[in-house]
Design brief:
The protein is α/β, with parallel strands linked by helices. It has two domains: 156 residues, Rossmann fold, CATH 3.40.50.300; 68 residues, no CATH class. It has seven helices and nine strands. The strands form two sheets. Strands 5-6-7-3-8-9 form a six-stranded mixed β-sheet, sandwiched between helices. The protein has a three-stranded antiparallel β-sheet with strand order 2-1-4. Strand 8 and strand 9 form a beta hairpin. The longest helix has 26 residues. It is globular, with a radius of gyration of 19 Å.
Length: 260
């Protein structure tokens, strides 16, 4: 499934009733089976963009859409959030089954489907555990399994590993890439971490400070599958430096305006 974002703008009202322009004229595509990351300064509208694609918000201008065949009963998107967003009273198995329940799938089908994604995400043996009995990394695996279980055409990820410690984060990045290699879902991955974006993605969309505009789309010239050894390759270093130069200039402009 291909993602199409064309001339998207989003303006909303803040708590004081003032208009805030979050996005302005954002245009890009994500090809089917591609993993694209979105980075930018704080407040650039990254999460707003994901919420527009998930159908939780409506654009003020422009359009978001998807291109490709979508079998009946299959949702176009599923979201993995920064916070684990699990139901504490449900077991791992029951949390993974939740979206399938909402879709009205039969109980036997729910169990089998959830079990498959529990195994895929390395949670086998933990089906009867509750979220408070799991580590942060394992809780986020449950969130990923729950999103994958409904078989979305597109997986939207909103800084899913930002709450994890550095070592767990690296392991989860590797696990997500392994899952992507097996499922070949189209993924749009929002992160504030430039190194993470470059190491994981095929391309990186760099947004400006608010209102978010596309500054540049940086291709990542690294082979797949990705390995830690690639972190020192010239292609990795060049992409990181290019993205940081773009974001750094935006942060500097914001500071200068704030001092004026």
């Amino acid at each position: 499934m291909k993602i199409l974002v064309e001339g998207v703008a989003k303006t909303y009202q803040d708590r004081r009733g003032q208009s805030v322009e979050a996005l302005a004229g954002v245009t890009f595509t994500v090809e089917a089976e591609e993993l694209v990351a979105v980075v930018g300064p704080s407040g650039c509208g990254k999460s707003t963009l994901l919420n527009l694609l998930a159908g939780l918000l409506t654009p003020s201008a422009g359009s978001v859409g998807f291109e490709g065949e979508l079998p009946a009963g299959r949702p176009p998107t599923a979201m993995v959030f920064q916070e684990f967003a699990l139901f504490p009273w449900r077991t791992v198995q029951a949390n993974v089954e939740f979206g399938l329940e909402e879709a009205g799938r039969p109980a036997a089908e729910r169990r089998l489907t959830a079990r498959r994604y529990v195994e895929l995400t390395g949670l086998g043996g933990f089906e009867r555990k509750y979220p408070h009995q799991l580590s942060g990394g394992m809780r986020q695996r449950v969130g990923i399994a729950r999103a994958l279980a409904v078989d979305p055409a597109v997986l939207l990820m909103d800084e899913p590993f930002s709450a994890l410690d550095a070592q767990t984060r690296q392991l989860m990045q590797e696990e997500l890439l392994a899952i992507w290699e097996r499922t070949r879902k189209t993924i749009l991955y929002v992160t504030h971490n430039i190194h993470e974006a470059v190491w994981m993605a095929d391309r990186v969309v760099v947004l400006s400070r608010r209102p978010g505009r596309v500054l540049e789309i940086v291709p990542v010239e690294l082979k797949r599958p990705r390995t830690e050894g690639m972190l020192g390759e010239p292609a990795f270093v060049h992409a990181v430096e290019r993205i940081w130069a773009l974001i750094k200039s935006q942060a500097r402009e914001a500071l200068q305006q704030g001092a004026a």
